[in-house]
Design goal:
two-stranded antiparallel ribbon, 2 helices
Length: 144
């Protein structure tokens, strides 16, 4: 009975966002980043921040390089970071949100633990299409 009540209170997942199940049984949102003619697949974490980011999709962003470590872009609004750890140490391929600035940060090199950095998910494979100089136009959308 308690699990039924918890399920009802949490509400349904958005119907337009595809999900797969992780080994632990939690829902994960599959997304894709389209860079020129290439499509990169990624999986968002089943967290308040990951679900809130998925609710923004589709997004058209211009990624710029930051400190030869990550690609960043401003988001249209702040994300829900309830329950997120105070800091996070990103790995290459991590998709994160930097709460103090309200921007998306995609790491292509590992970085030190940073206060206010929240993991949203990670790429499922190589991210070579993002490793270009200058601004990179990307479209981020739910995967079909």
């Amino acid at each position: 009975m308690a699990s039924l009540l918890a399920a009802l209170l949490s509400g349904p997942a958005p119907a337009e966002t595809p999900h797969t199940s992780s080994p632990e049984g939690t829902a994960m949102t599959r997304i894709q980043l389209i860079v020129g003619g290439e499509t990169l697949s990624a999986t968002l974490d089943d967290t308040p921040a990951g679900r809130d980011f998925a609710a923004l999709l589709p997004l058209e962003l211009s990624l710029t390089d930051y400190h030869a470590t990550e690609k960043i872009a401003d988001l249209p609004r702040t994300l829900d970071t309830r329950g997120a750890p105070a800091k996070y140490a990103p790995s290459a391929g991590d998709i994160t949100y930097y709460a103090p600035w309200g921007n998306l940060a995609i790491f292509y090199k590992p970085f030190q633990s940073s206060r206010g950095l929240v993991r949203l998910g990670a790429f499922d494979g190589p991210i070579d299409a993002l490793l270009r100089d200058g601004a990179i136009a990307v479209r981020i959308e739910a995967a079909e």
